[in-house]
Specification:
Length: 284
C-alpha cells in the first residue's frame, strides 16, 4: 500500500515536468534572457518578432522592462544605454563593445598628427593642436569622461607671433626659406625682401637695398643702369660716369660746364662749343 501511494503521487509530478520541459524546448529563447531586467520575448509562448538587433538585422532583439513596460533595446552587445544588461549605461566617450563599455576611439575625421579629440558635451570633436593660434596644444590628463577629456580642460599651446608658423613638433618657427631675425624673434626675414635682401642662416638680417635697387634673392641690384659711386647711374646721362663702357672704370667724368648726352660729354653753353670748334680749326 505504501509503494502504491508513492507511485500515485510521483507519476503526476513527473508527467508535469516532462510536459513543461517539452513546451520550453519548443519555444524560442532570448539570448540574454538570464540578464537582470531582461524579458523573454517568448514568455507567453508567442515570440515577439517586431524587435530586432538593428534596423537591417533579421535577428531577434533584446527587450528590457523600462518604466513597467517591455521596451525593445535592440542589441545589448552594442547599446550604450543598455550595455550587457538592461539599465547599464556607458559613460560619455565610451562605446558598448560585446556587452562591455570601452573607451571610444578617435573619430575617423581626427588626424592624430594635427588634431586632438575631446568631449564637447556628449560629442567628440577634433581640436587643432598645430594651429598658429594654439601651437603645441596637448591633451589633458582628466579622464573622468572616458578616454577623452573635456575640450575646456585641454592644455592650449602658444600663439605664434609675427610671421612665425607652427611646426609639426608643436613649436613656433620660421617657414621654410625664411630666417628668424636675431633682434626681433617674431620676425622671419626673406632673402628676396629688399629690406632683408640675401638673408641666410649665417646672416638672417640680410642687407637693406636702396630705393633705386631691387633684390634678386641674393644681393641688391640696380633697377636701371649700373652701379657706380654707391648709386645706380645711366652712363648715357650721368655727369660723373658718362660713356659707353660696361664698367665704371670705362666711364668719364664730364667737366663742370659739360653735360653727358648719349654717353658723350658736350658743352652745356652752345657758344662755348662754337668757340671751342673755332680754336680747334685755327690750331690746325
Amino acid at each position: 500500500m505504501k509503494y502504491k501511494a508513492l507511485i500515485r503521487t510521483r507519476i503526476p509530478c513527473l508527467l508535469s515536468a516532462l510536459i513543461l520541459a517539452a513546451l520550453g524546448a519548443q519555444g524560442c529563447q532570448s539570448e540574454h534572457a538570464g540578464d537582470q531586467g531582461n524579458l523573454d520575448p517568448c514568455a507567453n509562448g508567442d515570440c515577439d518578432t517586431s524587435c530586432k538587433k538593428s534596423a537591417d538585422s533579421s535577428e531577434d532583439g533584446d527587450i528590457c522592462q523600462i518604466g513597467g513596460s517591455p521596451v525593445c533595446v535592440g542589441d545589448l552587445m552594442t547599446n550604450k544605454d543598455h550595455c550587457g544588461s538592461c539599465g547599464h549605461a556607458c559613460k560619455p566617450g565610451q562605446n558598448c563593445v560585446n556587452g562591455k563599455c570601452e573607451d571610444q576611439l578617435p573619430p575617423s575625421g581626427c588626424d592624430s598628427t594635427k588634431e586632438i579629440p575631446c568631449m564637447d558635451g556628449d560629442n567628440i570633436v577634433c581640436v587643432p593642436k598645430l594651429s598658429n593660434e594654439s601651437c603645441g596644444t596637448k591633451a589633458c590628463t582628466n579622464k573622468e569622461d572616458g578616454k577623452f577629456c573635456k575640450c575646456e580642460d585641454i592644455v592650449k599651446g602658444q600663439a605664434c607671433e609675427g610671421n612665425l608658423g607652427c611646426s609639426t613638433n608643436g613649436e613656433c618657427v620660421c617657414p621654410e626659406g625664411l630666417f628668424q631675425d636675431k633682434t626681433n624673434k617674431s620676425q622671419c626675414n626673406s632673402p628676396e625682401n629688399p629690406a632683408t635682401c640675401g638673408a641666410s642662416k649665417d646672416n638672417p638680417a640680410g642687407i637693406q637695398c636702396r630705393e633705386d635697387q631691387i633684390c634678386n634673392g641674393k644681393e641688391c641690384a640696380c633697377i636701371e643702369g649700373i652701379e657706380c659711386g654707391g648709386k645706380c647711374i645711366d652712363p648715357l646721362k650721368d655727369h660723373d660716369f658718362c660713356g659707353l663702357g660696361e664698367s665704371c672704370d670705362q666711364l668719364a667724368q664730364c667737366k663742370e660746364d659739360e653735360t653727358c648726352t648719349q654717353g658723350v660729354c658736350v658743352c652745356t653753353n652752345p657758344s662755348q662749343a662754337m668757340f671751342a670748334n673755332r680754336s680747334m680749326t685755327s690750331t690746325w
